[in-house]
Amino acid sequence: MSQFQEKTQIIRIERFASDIVRLTLDSPDIASLAQPGQFVMVRTGNSNDPLLRRPFSISQTSNGKHFQILFKVVGRGTSLLAHCREGEYLSVLGPLGQGFRVDCQRTHCLVGGGMGIAPLLFLGKYLSRKCTRNPPLVILGARTREELDPLVNDFNELGLSVHSATDDGTLGHHGLVTDVLKGLDLGPNCQAYVCGPHPMMAAVHLLCKDRGYACQVSMETSMACGMGACLGCIVPVERGGYAHACCDGPVFDAKELLWQVK
Amino acid sequence: MASQVNGVDLRVSIGTLSLKNPVMTASGTFGYAREFMPYVNLHRLGAVVVKGISLEPRSGNPPPRIVETSAGMLNAIGLENVGVERFISDKMASLQGIPVPVFVNILGDTLDEYKEIAARLAGVQGVAGIEVNISCPNVKKGGVAFGTVPEMAAAVTSAVKAESTVPVVVKLSPNVTDISAIARSVEDAGADAVSLINTLIGMAIDSRSRRPRLANVIGGLSGPAIKPVALRMVYQVAQAVSIPVIGIGGIETAEDVVEFMLAGATAVQIGTANFVNPRASEDAVEGLAHYVAEQKLGSVRELIGGLILP
User: Which of A17, B114, B200, B286 gets the highest tally of CB atoms within 10 A of its CB?
Assistant: First the structure.
């Protein structure tokens, strides 16, 4: 599999809500090879502190030239990235990991929460082009309208309608994405693709299991290298032991993982 | 490119083994080398040290296993590995194709385990050297780490040495009172070289949750943060022993390599930097060639122990 380490130029910076940022990066090598669900490791600066790269799902590619990452400012690394300027360069490794597995014979349902929506946009675009007979159903949740609105718009621009849910009720359903999913009948041939906070993914997995839907989840873990060397990014698996999110995932069949459901 | 700096002699020797340059990769930071092929021209490196191997497979510690700290990282991977049998059957084939010497790092809970792994690896094609991790707890001696008691370190060294047909490097723990004493004891026991330092034991706490940031509570600190400690220990050990010293600890660039060699190292290993820049080892070789050419040195070996004291 081809992977690259590149200096990529920041083409565009967009700020959604107060702490959500989207970067568009110029990298034909990465953009042309990336598959939905894959990720990149981004260096946040040239100094040794913070030391490690940060993993981000690829949220969209365009024209085989550019790709986007979407993130919330949660610490020093993301804060540094949020303060970059257009025209600056970032060191990026990618595309990394195993992405979503798609079968056009199925009906598709995308379920995203918060920043977990990022890789689903790439997948939504892919599905709407490849599986034209049955466009995916999309359910997105976030804290507020301010946070969710721009992300919903991205899907609308692809011609996909979105079921929304917000924690504060400012957009769509007042509550969880799982509430919305519960109210929909997706038929026995459904394949759900899920990315979001761990409890949300666990809840969706259980619901899918209950209804006989197939379910793929994209796992977020901390990791140092993104390429199978540091062994830091483990997720517990059903058969015992661990899988590595960087190269066995980040997308897994939810049934293969060991879920700690409270 | 290193090859473009013509006529620069970067060769060094570790025991009977000749390396084309002093830059190696550190165990546990370079996988089984295959992972780095998209990024690194492996033939440019001095040697590769693969992930630590135990007698039986180990699944390692629960998550979280790694946490970033100031200019460094803490890890408590728990020595996850496939075990020596699967290492030989599944991993050796691709390692045999690597055009540089491959050191296999080994670890154990008892003297017998070290002995058995070394015996199992003896004669396996593609194993150019053994690196012995003696930072593990000795379960038969109440969990005291082998590397912290000179007699135990020596016993492991002679056990492995007796089974091995290739050079044996002993990787020293910095979590000791006098690392020079340990280095002398493993030299006396027959080690062909010592490599140092392994990680410094550390800890990180989340002030909000009041919990440790690693599931294992404590872990090993690596990265640029530990470089001054590593340099000091290499400097002291190089004066205490006459076998080659391999410097490890926060090395990222050719300048770092030069510093460790001036302190007395014959070769170095690049570790955590591989995670940040997978091409770090090759970049260091390239930079080192330029340094040697620019300084008009006859060979890189002139740097070893060449520190000018005040």
Answer: B114
Q: Which residue of B has its CA nearest to A5?
A: B39
Closest CA to B199 of B222, B231, B233, B228: B222
Domain assignment present for residue B212? The answer is: no
Tokens of B302: 């002139």
CATH code for position B112:
3.20.20.70
Domain that holds residue B20: 2-60+77-200+221-303
What ipTM goes with this model?
A: 0.93
Domains of chain A, each with CATH number or no CATH: 4-96 (2.40.30.10), 107-218 (3.40.50.80)
Tokens encoding B270: 């690049």
Output the pLDDT for position B7: 78
Find chain A residues with C-beta within 8 A of B49's C-beta. Answer: none
Residues 6+ apart with CB under 8 A from A133: A104
Put simply, the answer to whether B275 touches A52 (Cβ < 8 Å) is yes
**B8 within some domain:** yes
User: In tens digits, what is the pLDDT along chain A, a chain of 262 residues?
Assistant: 589 999 999 999 999 888 999 999 999 999 999 999 999 999 998 899 999 999 999 999 998 999 999 999 999 999 999 999 999 999 999 999 999 999 999 999 999 999 999 999 999 999 999 998 888 999 999 999 999 999 999 999 999 989 999 999 999 999 999 999 999 988 889 999 999 999 999 999 999 999 999 999 999 999 999 999 999 999 999 999 999 999 999 999 999 999 976 5
* Residues in CB range of A141: below 8 A, 6 or more apart: A112, A113, A114, A148, A164, A165, A166, A167, A176, A177, A180, A196, A200
**Which residues of B are known to be catalytic?**
136
The answer to whether the CB atoms of A51 and B65 lie below 8 A apart is: no
Question: Which of helix, strand or coil describes residue A244?
Answer: strand
Question: Is residue B208 included in any domain, yes or no?
Answer: no
In this structure, the number of other CB atoms found within 10 A of the CB of residue B208 comes to 6
DSSP B142: T
What is the three-class DSSP state of A126? helix
Mutation target among A42, A90, A219, A231 for the B interface, most CBs of B within 10 A: A231
Which among B28, B274, B276 has the least Cβ separation from residue A43?
A: B276
Whether A223 sits inside 8 A of B72 (CB atoms) is: no
pLDDT confidence bin for B133, thresholds 50/70/90: very high
Check B223 against A48: CB less than 8 A apart. Answer: yes
